[in-house]
Amino acid sequence: MNNVIDYLKEVLKATGKGLKGYLKAECKLSVLTFVVLCSGFLLIGIEHWGIKAFGIAIVDIIPVLGSGMIMVPWAVIRFIMGDTTIAWQLGLVYIVASIIRQIAEPFVTGKEIGVRPLYTLISTVICVLLFGPLGALAGALVAVIIKAIFEVKFIRRL
Questions:
Q1: Per residue in 121-155, pLDDT tens?
Q2: Beta carbons of 101 and 29 less than 8 angstroms apart
Q3: Measured between alpha carbons, how far is 50 from 18 in angstroms, rounded to an integer?
Q4: Any idea what DSSP says for residue 134?
Q5: Is 114 helix (H, G, I), strand (E, B) or coil?
């Protein structure tokens, strides 16, 4: 019984370490989003581009919705108001930022939690298929837990 409790404690400790890495990865990805948005907003002439990019980068931490929660309605409103050029430019900035984040996410997250990017990506895809939008968050968590279990099991064998 004591062995099981010790094993669970070790798994929880390793999982906590992985979750800390996941949060660090999310912060790095938010900074990446901030830089992309700053560049895009500056290029298309958005007023107060830095402040707006910062606010959107903070919201980008929310899984699935992220920056689209602000960028899409903003582009649609500008389109309805007749400012189609800015609307299309905002849409393009959003698409570029999303693509860059989607490409970088498995690599940054995998590096920070100590799991290969391919495994992180596979875990996230499977969790999204199983759990829908919440699976995007669960994918990294599942990868962290599986890594912790294997890590503790491997250490115990040595």
A1: 788 888 888 888 777 777 777 888 888 887 777 66
A2: yes
A3: 31
A4: G
A5: coil
